Amino acid sequence: RDQCIESNPFQIVGYLGSPALQKIAVMHLDKGPRAILDQNKGIPGISHYNAGDLLSELLVHPYGDFMFTVNYTEGIISISSDHRHLRPDIQIDLGLGPISDAEIWPTIHQALPNDNHQALLYVSSALDHQVYELDLDLVSLELERAIAGEEVQVSELMRRSWPISNLEDEPRSPSLLSVNERGDQLAVTIRGE
C-alpha cells in the first residue's frame, strides 16, 4: 500500500469568464478548498487566462476535451486544450460574420448520452439568417491537427444549417437558441419579433 502512487493526472476545474476584463479565471473544484488558481506564479497576484477581445461567451466541450470562447462580434471561436497555456491553441473564423447566440448539446447540466452521440455546437448567424450545427468532436480533431501544425478545415466542422424566416417566409435574423434535453429539438427566437 505504501508503494501506491496517485496516477490520476486530472483535476476538476471550473471556468469563470469576464467579458469586461477579457479574462478567464480557473477555479479549483476538486478535493480540498475551492480557490481561483494562479495561472502564472511568476507574476505577483493571481494571474488569469487572457482571452483578448475574444470573449462573448465561454463554453466547455461536453466531454471536457477543450474549453472555448465565442466572439459574437467577429464570429470567431478560440479553443484551448489546456488552460495552463494561458492562450488559445487555435482561433477559428467561422466565416459567418456576427453571431447572435451559441449553445452546446449536451450541456453540463445533463447526463451524457450512452449512445456515443456527437457533442454539438449551434450558432445563429445574423447576416445570412441561418442557424448552423457544428460537430464538436470534429473540432477536437481539428484542434489536434492545428497543434500538429496542419491547416484547419473549417468547412468540415459544419454539419447542417437551417434558414430562419417568419410565417410569411421572409428571411429573419435568429437570436437566442435553446436545445431540449434529448437534443432533438432546437428553439430559435427571431430578432425583433
Write a short abstract of this structure.
With 193 residues, this protein is mainly beta. The chain contains 1 helix and 14 strands, in the order βββββββββββαβββ.
Mean pLDDT: 79
Distance between the termini: 66 Å
User: What is the overall silhouette?
Assistant: globular
Give the beta-strand count. Answer: 14
Which regions are unreliable across 5 or more consecutive residues at pLDDT < 50?
Answer: none
**How would you spell out the order of helices and strands?**
EEEEEEEEEEEHEEE
Helicity, as a percent range? under 10%
Strand content: 35-45%
**Cα radius of gyration in angstroms:** 18 Å
Largest sheet: 4 strands, antiparallel
Structural class: mainly beta
* Total of helices: 1
Topology:
Blueprint: E1 13-18, E2 23-28, E3 35-37, E4 49-50, E5 57-60, E6 67-71, E7 76-80, E8 90-93, E9 99-105, E10 120-125, E11 130-135, H1 136-147, E12 158-163, E13 174-179, E14 186-190
Antiparallel strand pairs: 1-2, 2-3, 2-4, 5-6, 6-7, 7-8, 9-10, 10-11, 11-12, 13-14
Give a description of the structure.
The chain has 193 residues and is mainly beta. The protein contains 1 helix and 14 strands. The mean pLDDT is 79.
Key traits:
single chain, about 190 residues, mainly beta, 1 helix, 14 strands, about 5% helix, globular
